[in-house]
Amino acid sequence: MKTAIVTIKGVAPYCASRFHNTPRLEKETPDAYEQRTWREKAHYDEDGIAFIPGKAFKFALATCARKLGLQVPGRGKKTYKDSFASGVLILENLSLKSMRDAVKCVAVHCDAKGIGTCKGGGGARVMRNFPIFHQWGGKLTVHIVDDLITEDVFAKHFTEAGKFVGVGQNRPENCGEHGRFEVQAIEWAK
Prior knowledge:
With about 190 residues, this protein is an alpha+beta fold. It has helices at about 30-35, 55-70, 80-85, 150-165; strands at about 1-10, 15, 45, 50, 90, 95-100, 105-110, 125-135, 135-145, 180-190. Strand 3 (about 45) and strand 4 form a beta hairpin. Helix 2 (about 55-70) crosses helix 4 (about 150-165).
């Protein structure tokens, strides 16, 4: 097993879109509900500090491997897709260093059914509020248990995931621009 400490920096705002099941108040309008509960779309730790789940980066890596389709040398047509899907662990979250009450929001004109731009919803559109973080970044500890993933292959996939997949709502994978990041450094633990 290899362990990489990856330092990243957001190059576009991160916009959170966690599903929450906050009950509606009696006679509360959809707009009033949205205004009251938009902060719940971000993840928070026990101290009320917002974070990006580590699994968001794991999913970005797996998506990148599937889309890049780079072949494993000496393995015929085999790609790294399965290696990144099951051979990478990111167990810790990336702190956004922002308290729940200090979080800002952005209003987005969305498909009412939540269908992404790339899928061409075409239905009714409504305004939704999402927590947004303009400055973000930090260190992620990534455990690589699949020996097919070399240091160079890992670096390429993590870099491309930051550019073309991203994390959060309205990310490049879904025809958006939020959640893009750049890899500033990768340190390999001995």
